[in-house]
Each structure stands twice: as structure tokens, then as C-alpha cells.
């Protein structure tokens, strides 16, 4: 089991999670509200698990290469479609982000730029990282809109994956060894 910690301050950002071999296929969703009344797709990741997303995800968005326009499948495979005056757009955001279920993430702060959390029914993740660590470092992008998968992605340069400590034990690689994981 592992936890993700902030690369800037080593604060734990997640509960203990286990690595999966791949990101699961997106679950089917008909657009109807869920039991909680919210319009969002089912979670991409099961609770207690994380995976590495090999595809580009998130901002910035660049024009789709002309030779790929006939096979266009959204800003990322299976994602929402987007275009501007340049044509169809695809993600040029980071690769190899860590994908988690939102309920496995410890409380994070909203990004100070309100636009980063914009969306229709929730954060769309289209404007870059929208969650920050308590130290102020940009660490994750929440996708919770009616047009996106329901997931949170941590940029690999913003976090470190470390073995999960035993409850009450010191946080691995933490500069102040007296700090503990609860």
C-alpha cells in the first residue's frame, strides 16, 4: 500500500491505496443523476486503488493533427469534444498522472483562481490544476463535471508515492520525523 505526498512539503494527500496495473475502462453512464442527485459519471477508479494514466490529460489543449481529425475521440480518448477557431482540440497536458477515487483523497484546498474550478455541474478540469496542498502547491486536477469522468489526477511532478506508514507511524521520507500519519 502507498500514499501520495506533496512533493513541496511532504504532507500526506491520500489515504493508503494500492496500485492497479492500468486505469479501468470508463464505466457506462447515461447522463442521469445519481442517487445523490448529482449529474456525474460513476467513479473511474474503485475505492482504495490508484493507477497511472499514460495518456495526456488536462490543459493545455492544442489543435488535433489534421491526419487524426477523422478518428477524433475527444480531448483525450473517450473524453469530451472541444474545439475553437483552430479546430478540434486534444490534450497536451501531463502524462503518467496518478488517478484516484475522490474519496481516497484527504482534504485539499481549492485553487485560488476560481476559473480553475469552473464547470457545469462540477469542476471540469479544463483550466489546469484546480486543487492545491495546504502549502499552496498545485497538486491535482479534480474532474467532477457532467461532461467528464469522475476522478482526481495528481501530476507526477507535484507528488511523490511512498509506502503507506503503519497508523501512528512516521511518514516515510518526511523531513521532520516527528510528524505522523493518522
Number of E-state strands? 12
User: How would you spell out the order of helices and strands?
Assistant: EEEEEEEEEEEE
Cα distance spanning the termini: 15 Å
Q: Could you estimate the helical fraction of the residues in percent?
A: under 10%
Oligomer: single chain
Uncertain segments of ≥5 residues (pLDDT<50)? 175-182
Spatial sequence of strands, sheet with the most strands: 2-3-7-11-10-9-8
Determine the mean pLDDT.
86
Shape by Cα distribution: globular
Please tally the helical runs, counting DSSP H or I stretches of 4 or more residues.
0
Computed structural class: mainly beta
Count structural domains.
1
Strand content: 15-25%
Rg over C-alpha atoms, rounded to the nearest angstrom: 17 Å
Largest sheet: 7 strands, mixed
Organism: Streptomyces roseoviridis
Region (Disordered): 25-52
Protein name: Cysteine-rich CPCC domain-containing protein
Model description:
The chain has a 7-stranded mixed sheet with strand order 2-3-7-11-10-9-8, with no helix packed on it. It is mostly beta strands. The model is unreliable at 175-182 (pLDDT under 50). Helix content is 0%, strand content 25%. The protein has one domain (2-58, 93-163). The chain is built from no helices and 12 strands. It starts with a strand and ends in a 19-residue tail after the last strand.
Which secondary structure elements does this structure contain, and how are they paired or packed?
Blueprint: E1 2-6, E2 18-19, E3 49-53, E4 61-63, E5 83-84, E6 87-91, E7 97-100, E8 109-110, E9 131-132, E10 138-143, E11 151-154, E12 159-163
Parallel strand pairs: 2-3
Antiparallel strand pairs: 1-12, 3-7, 4-6, 5-6, 7-11, 8-9, 9-10, 10-11
Amino acid at each position: 500500500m502507498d500514499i501520495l505526498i506533496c512533493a513541496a512539503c511532504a504532507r500526506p494527500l491520500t489515504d493508503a491505496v494500492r496500485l492497479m496495473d492500468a486505469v479501468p475502462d470508463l464505466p457506462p453512464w447515461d447522463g442521469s443523476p445519481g442517487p445523490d442527485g448529482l449529474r456525474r459519471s460513476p467513479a473511474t477508479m474503485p475505492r482504495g486503488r490508484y493507477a497511472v494514466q499514460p495518456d495526456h490529460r488536462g490543459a493545455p489543449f492544442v489543435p488535433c493533427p489534421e491526419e487524426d481529425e477523422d478518428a477524433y475521440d475527444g480531448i483525450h480518448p473517450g473524453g469530451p469534444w472541444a474545439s475553437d477557431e483552430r479546430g478540434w482540440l486534444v490534450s497536451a497536458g501531463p502524462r503518467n498522472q496518478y488517478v484516484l477515487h475522490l474519496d481516497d483523497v484527504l482534504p485539499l484546498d481549492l485553487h485560488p483562481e476560481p476559473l480553475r474550478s469552473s464547470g457545469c455541474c462540477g469542476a471540469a478540469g479544463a483550466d489546469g490544476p484546480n486543487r492545491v496542498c495546504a502549502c499552496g502547491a498545485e497538486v491535482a486536477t479534480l474532474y467532477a463535471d457532467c461532461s467528464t469522468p469522475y476522478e482526481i489526477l495528481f501530476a507526477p511532478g507535484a507528488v511523490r508515492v511512498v509506502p503507506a506508514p503503519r497508523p501512528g507511524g512516521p511518514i516515510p521520507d518526511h523531513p521532520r520525523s516527528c510528524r505522523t500519519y493518522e
